[in-house]
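User: Modeling request: complex.
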Amino acid sequence: MIEITNVTKRYGTTAVVDDVTATIRKGGITSLIGPNGAGKSTLLGMMSRLLKTDAGTITVDGLDVTSTSGDVMARKLAILRQQNYFEARLTVEDLVTFGRFPYCKGRPTVEDKKHIDRAIEYLELSDLRYRFLHELSGGQQQRAFVSMVLAQDTDYLLLDEPLNNLDMRHSIAMMQQLRHIVNDLNKTVVIVLHDINFASWYSDEILAMRDGRIVYHAGPEVVITPKALMDLYDVEVTVETIQGKSVGVYYGAMNIATPRHHD
Amino acid sequence: MLRSASVPVESTKPFSLHPIARLLIIGLLALAVVTIFMTINSRGNWDFVLPFRGRKVLAIIVVGTAIAISTVIFQTITANRILTPSIMGFDALFMLVQTIAVFSMGGAALAQTDPKIRFVVNVLVMTVFSGALYWWLFIKANRPLHLLVLIGIIFGTLFRSFTNLLQRMIDPTDFAVLQDTSFASFNSVDRTLVGIGATIVGVILLMVALRNRILDAMLLGRATSISIGVDYQREVMIVLAMTTILVSVSTALVGPITFFGLLVAHLAYHTVGSSGHRYTIPAAALYSIIFLVGGQLILEHVFNFNSSLSIMVEFAGGLLFIILLLRGNA
Ligand SMILES: Nc1ncnc2c1ncn2[C@@H]1O[C@H](COP(=O)(O)OP(=O)(O)O)[C@@H](O)[C@H]1O
Ligand SMILES: [Mg+2]
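Assistant: Request completed. Predicted assembly structure:
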């Protein structure tokens, strides 16, 4: 369980995350949605101890993320950020091996190698295993990073827009893979998604943010509705039920409401 | 999971010479250069030639290793491959600290203190100052590289001008305590400091060896290294302290060298076939030795020419710096 209590993050005088309180239950996929700049990445960054909170506390299974040792947290919770760039030349295998760092401190054992192999296969990266990351496409790199996070084998996975750069097939594969590890291994996934329909289709719960606040925290059937989506995005979305899931159609939305929060 | 559209091919590792084999080759090359340097034109004067040249080689190994380690670890924690401690003005700062000491205490008083103690005090002062400065510059905020280049150049110039100003104001007799600050020289190595320098570099080499896997993880940048459990803040402080001490050693021994570290670090990155610090650091150190001993060899025995090794080395390194900037790595 992740408990977020009265958490605030300010840049200058603006609170980009504004007194947020929420509980993310253990097991299951929780999606974070909301317009650009809503504070999703900032909230995820604080949950994963990359950013300091200005007020409030966050605990993961009772462990305070700011005071628990990094080593312990690294076996509890893994994070994949939106942007990942570095200068070093690493192969896919090198990168995934770093996922085992919390356990082997850079000297992988036979057991670690098994985790690495499995994580590489999960993301269909076997034939790219020895390729250098900088020679791969954005989507392939993204999969390599997710594979690293999987190899870390933590109870909690926090992923910031992991579907970025992925084609249809790999997006589906990744979401199904996440569903699979959640169901079979009782992991907890918190994932920032851009696409409301992926959120609708695969989430157990949706946390919807706007202007640094959580405006909805409920199941997809509640959040993926014309009213809620208008509140969130100022876009008129038609919602249909397809194969038992709510699907929003907005590609030709005629009524783009005037944004309320811009000047 | 979706089935692969095609039968998955388990790729085999492409053939490539193992980094250890590559290190061995570079090592042999270094050994060869050192051997030639020690034995060439000795005319049987072994009693004189061996200790005389041995001291020179030792000084070069100490300085070369210090420059190589400090450049590679600094580039790792700052997540860049263009800036080096000396490009950012670390060595100029060391000269300034030294000069301020002479200025405030007077050369006579200083000349009476043990140079080793003087050196250690300088290093400590320098570690505190530059540690704080570079923490603020690199770690506290994510500043764009071109801004850092500019700040580095401005700081370097500022430190150097201030040093010059103070040196002009100093009593000429006090001035003798300071070494010539404008260019590095491998011929006028401060002998009293070679021993302590070697000890310091040895200890730091050991520390770096012990944490080489942590350094590898830090190549992934702040966020990812924190995610996989690196105590990032602590490690950055340690590396900054080690960098400062190493730069102090090399500057105290031979004077400031701006671009040489960049040159050997890049040779190592591109030829050793791995990003692991257990390979890149020894490779960079060996390249330092090859260049410095080899350069000295050519200048002394081919051109009969003594003083311009640092100029040649700086020229090559400076050229590389410009190329890297132009290539848009920035
Ligand atoms: N380092 C920073 N300095 C100043 N403002 C920032 C910083 N990081 C994010 N912000 C601002 O905080 C707001 C929320 O950003 P973010 O959490 O990245 O939004 P999201 O991920 O929902 O698109 C944005 O308005 C962004 O401009
Ligand atoms: Mg974001």
